């Protein structure tokens, strides 16, 4: 093989790879980050194949970045697989001495493969167009001998053309906008007055402290089993109540919205949240009390357990009693649920870890016998009530020379009575300032003026100011529950039961 022949072979391989990348970009440009995106099927497969401890490390250490890296890996592997099909089409074109064959046949191969994997016409068409654009821009000549005779210039032109086309497709894909998943968009003019008043009260009761979220989170965390959230059309969606029940039923979104609704604050914490992690947030939710659907179904069975199913294939099993007092939410902070938070419906189970708060809810199945949930099969055991935690999220230097530390505290439905802070590594403790409780809390004043609350599922902010000792020191924080129970100081990692322990930080 001559040097020119080897150079052209390398160029053809590079163009094939670029065509694979172009196919992935074309699919994204057509459907966005959705289950029909070309990289999503392999990403889902990789996610489900990972052992529980690996997923735990990814959630704790990498957060959403780990999921994005998994999607990137899946997209690259998919691009390489499609590159092999394009390269095959290029070889056929060489044999037939026809420059149109690699473009047409490569696009056909990519379209068929994408349609088979994603079962989506738009995704397949976008992928085929992306691959065809790269191959055609690379400018294949009709026969191999003609390519060899022209020397290295065609090699450069081919690779440069392929790179330019792939970059152009990438730019189109990147600029493609997806629906926002942020819950802090402006309220609509027709938002109920109760919602407006509740959100205004939460803003008023939020402590004016730099570095921590207000009582209603501006940027609510997300943890999902897939990188691409499902897109559920509300007109085609329904919620089924099935299994060991006297009266099975199916509800449309309009059916649920016509029922008596409830609006309440509720805090969610991810079971994979590290001790001082950021996967803890609060919002105002509106929906149907789950008890109404439970009573209508009249469940039986021997295990007294229920399985919630989601549109993305996720499911969770927990005691039926835990679902009572919960909410089937269709609004978040006065607006329809964002796609990333479960549109059109999600479950809220008071005081339990975030993993049981199933999003994109499609079915409530009452079981005859107990079963393992999605994460339990992967080694987690987080379906029970959350553990109590006081987070230390801010250390601020004040204008008067004092130091301020602050964060949030959460104890599920047990409620937070107070937060205690030590600035000498646990040698002595002082009570921090707490934000006033949100509506629905039961508050009592004790002889020590500390606040005790119960029957709520809402976090509270805390802040403490002190004179800096002038040297490095250890700040430790802990919460006390409504009945006086002190937060456990026993430190453990999130996997498999949720993190516990007192948060500490060295302050200089």
From TrEMBL:
GO terms for molecular function: heme binding; molybdenum ion binding; molybdopterin cofactor binding; sulfite oxidase activity. SUPFAM superfamilies: E set domains, Oxidoreductase molybdopterin-binding domain. Residues 422-456, 488-508 are annotated as: Disordered. The keyword Transmembrane helix applies. Residues 400-487 form the Moybdenum cofactor oxidoreductase dimerisation domain. Signal peptide: none annotated. Keywords: Membrane, Transmembrane, Transmembrane helix. Residues 230-375 form the Oxidoreductase molybdopterin-binding domain. GO terms for biological process: sulfur compound metabolic process. Residues 445-454 have a biased composition (Low complexity). Coiled coil: none annotated. The chain crosses the membrane at residues 12-38, 69-88, 100-121, 127-146, 158-175. This is DMSO/TMAO reductase YedYZ, molybdopterin-dependent catalytic subunit.
């Amino acid at each position: 093989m001559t040097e020119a022949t080897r150079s052209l072979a390398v160029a053809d391989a590079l163009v094939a790879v670029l065509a694979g990348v172009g196919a992935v970009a074309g699919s994204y440009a057509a459907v966005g980050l959705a289950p029909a995106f070309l990289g999503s099927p392999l990403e889902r497969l990789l996610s489900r194949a990972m052992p529980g401890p690996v997923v735990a490390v990814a959630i704790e250490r990498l957060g959403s970045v780990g999921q994005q890296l998994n999607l990137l890996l899946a997209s690259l592997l998919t691009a390489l697989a499609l590159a092999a099909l394009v390269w095959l089409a290029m070889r056929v074109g060489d044999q037939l001495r026809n420059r149109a064959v690699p473009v047409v046949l490569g696009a056909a191969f990519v379209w068929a493969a994408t349609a088979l994997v994603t079962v989506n016409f738009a995704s397949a068409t976008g992928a085929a167009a992306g691959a065809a654009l790269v191959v055609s821009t690379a400018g294949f000549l009709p026969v191999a001998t003609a390519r060899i005779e022209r020397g290295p210039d065609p090699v450069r032109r081919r690779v440069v053309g392929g790179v330019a086309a792939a970059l152009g497709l990438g730019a189109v894909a990147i600029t493609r906008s997806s629906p926002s998943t942020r819950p802090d968009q402006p309220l609509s003019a027709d938002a109920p007055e109760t919602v407006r008043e509740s959100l205004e009260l939460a803003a008023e009761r939020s402590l004016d402290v730099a570095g921590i979220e207000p009582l209603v989170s501006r940027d609510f965390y997300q943890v999902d089993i897939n990188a691409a959230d499902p897109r559920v059309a509300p007109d085609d969606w329904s919620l089924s109540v099935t299994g060991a029940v006297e009266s099975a039923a199916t509800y449309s979104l309009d059916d649920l919205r016509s029922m008596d609704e409830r609006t309440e604050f509720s805090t969610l914490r991810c079971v994979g949240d590290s001790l001082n992690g950021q996967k803890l947030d609060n919002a105002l939710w509106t929906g149907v009390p789950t008890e109404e659907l439970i009573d209508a179904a009249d469940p039986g069975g021997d295990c007294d357990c229920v399985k919630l199913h989601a549109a993305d294939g996720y499911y969770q099993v927990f005691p039926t009693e835990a679902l009572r007092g919960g909410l089937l939410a269709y609004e978040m902070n006065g607006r329809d649920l964002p796609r990333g938070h479960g549109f059109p419906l999600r479950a809220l189970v008071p005081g339990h870890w975030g993993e049981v708060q199933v999003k994109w809810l499609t079915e409530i199945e009452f079981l005859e016998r107990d079963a393992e949930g999605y994460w339990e099969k992967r080694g987690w055991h987080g379906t029970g009530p959350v553990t109590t935690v006081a987070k230390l999220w801010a250390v601020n230097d004040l204008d008067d020379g004092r130091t301020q530390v602050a964060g949030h505290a959460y104890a599920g439905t047990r409620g937070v009575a107070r937060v205690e802070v030590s600035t000498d590594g646990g040698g002595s403790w002082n009570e921090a300032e707490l934000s006033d409780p949100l509506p629905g809390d039961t508050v009592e004043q004790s002889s020590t003026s500390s606040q005790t609350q119960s029957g709520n599922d809402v976090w509270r902010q805390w802040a403490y100011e002190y004179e800096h000792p002038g040297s490095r020191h250890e700040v430790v924080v802990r919460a006390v529950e409504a009945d006086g129970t002190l937060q456990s100081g026993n430190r453990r990692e999130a996997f498999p039961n949720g993190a516990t322990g007192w948060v500490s930080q060295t302050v200089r």
